[in-house]
Design brief:
Blueprint: E1 2-5, E2 10-18, E3 23-32, E4 35-40, E5 47-54, E6 59-67, E7 70-75, E8 77-84
Length: 85
Amino acid sequence: MSCNKDENNLTLNIDYIDSGKSLRAEVEITFHSIFDVNIEKFINNSVIHSLTILSGNNHWVTIDPCFGFCGSFKCRGIETKLVKT
């Protein structure tokens, strides 16, 4: 997993693995116009347990860790891209 953050956006590159379904992919998720940011413990080998997105006027994003990176924030838009399978 890698993370790039500028003043307004947060981009996560995540290696998604579902061993039960034999699925693997690299996914890029960009969260646009982030605010109310509370993220911590980012390290390059972080493992995310779950990523929850609640939608409304803004999106509320919560990241629960297995190891490392965790937190929550709000954003105004989300863009996803499949990098490779």
